[in-house]
Design a protein that fits this description.
This protein is α+β, with helices and mostly antiparallel strands and 362 residues long. 54% of the residues lie in helices and 14% in strands. It contains eleven helices and seven strands. α1 crosses α10. The longest helix is centred in the C-terminal third of the chain and has 27 residues. The protein starts with a helix and ends with a helix.
């Protein structure tokens, strides 16, 4: 259960770490003040305006979810319509509450660690208004400013929150995580094969049957026969070019096709200039999916019929620990941070103001 909750939290942070503005059909409006409390997390109030700020970012995703799941269209009455006993409004409210709980836990942790004094919605708006006034005055005085002339609510929230998370990670690393060289080395070894390989050089052969001048019906018949026979032997151990050539000859005795064998050497860690060639790119995609000794199913490339046979693969080794040290540290810190915050969120006491929560309409 705990593992499932942690996975859910990870999904939240991936989606909501920065709340990217998206197209909305109309703005949801609560029937009361933005400062009214809709819920609380560990005693810290969540203002309705704060709740709606997050909800606005999720509206389009919820609409898409219901449209794809139930083949419905967005129209009047959409939010309160029942779908298998659930309404889009309830879905959006719960998703918003889950996300804002996770955000508020991080803000509370930052406050407890002396990184921020005020995490209220009113405090955020004061910062936003002060910053926009400063920028307006700077523009009037023809001073250089960086970023937008005026911040929108969501952009400024993203800016402040993302910077807060960076600072909080560093603080927790100093006080709790204390990532040592030994931990970094262990993480490097753990991820070595999946993340820090330099790549492989794959050697392969491409058997290509290219038609000469034949009518379309003859070409289709021949290709169908050859493809069927080639696929019957594809994947067998010890299969080579001869087996595939013999199948093609059996299909048509007078051979109105040219059989060619081409060598292919590809490095999957780089994009080589020759890969601008569409044929090489396609063959490389097929080859890197196969193990040494394996053959692909027959596939069409333009008018030709092809099979890729992988004859060998050589590892290029690994990027060194020292070269990857900062990447390893960043990845490990992210994992430790997410696990730590997920645990706090799991233990959080969330209370809903039912009157205000139920009164929210989209």
């Amino acid at each position: 259960m705990a593992a499932g909750f942690t996975k859910l939290i990870r999904q939240w942070i991936c989606i909501h770490y920065l709340l990217v503005p998206c197209i909305t059909f109309c703005q949801p409006l609560p029937p009361f003040s933005d400062t009214a409390t809709v819920a609380s997390v560990n005693g810290e109030a969540i203002a309705t305006g704060e709740f709606m700020l997050i909800a606005r970012q999720k509206r389009a995703k919820v609409i898409r979810h219901f449209a794809e799941l139930y083949q419905c269209t967005y129209s009047a009455g959409f939010w309160e319509k029942q779908f298998d006993g659930h309404t889009p409004a309830a879905h959006l409210k719960q998703a918003t509450l889950d996300t804002i709980t996770f955000i508020k836990i991080q803000q509370l942790t930052a406050k407890q660690n002396g990184l921020i004094d005020d995490i209220t919605y009113a405090g955020f708006h004061k910062k936003l208004n002060d910053e926009n006034l400063r920028r307006k005055n700077a523009v009037a005085q023809k001073k250089v400013i960086y970023g937008p002339v005026q911040y929108s609510e969501v952009v400024y929230f993203n800016y402040l929150f993302s910077n807060l998370v960076i600072s909080l990670k560093q603080k927790l690393d100093e006080k709790i995580f204390r990532i040592s060289a030994e931990k970094l080395r262990a993480q490097y070894e753990k991820d070595k094969d999946s993340l820090y390989r330099k790549g492989y050089v794959t050697n392969a052969l491409v058997l290509r049957a290219t038609p000469i001048e034949v009518n379309s019906r003859e070409r289709e018949d021949w290709q169908a026969k050859v493809k069927l026979q080639w696929n019957e032997i594809a994947g067998r151990s010890g299969v080579g070019v001869r087996e595939f050539e013999s199948c093609s000859r059996l299909a048509k005795s007078d051979e109105p096709y040219i059989l060619g064998i081409e060598q292919l050497v590809v490095n999957d860690s780089v994009h080589a200039p020759e890969e601008e060639d569409v044929f090489v790119t396609m063959m490389k995609e097929k080859a890197v999916e196969l193990k040494p000794g394996q053959t692909s199913q027959a596939f069409q490339y333009r008018q030709a019929l092809c099979v890729v046979l992988v004859t060998g693969r050589t590892s290029l080794g690994y990027r060194s620990f020292e070269a990857c040290r900062e990447i390893v540290r960043s990845k490990l810190l992210d994992e430790l941070y997410l696990d730590y915050i997920a645990d706090l969120a799991k233990k959080a006491i969330v209370r809903i103001n039912e009157n205000n929560y139920s009164a929210i309409r989209f």
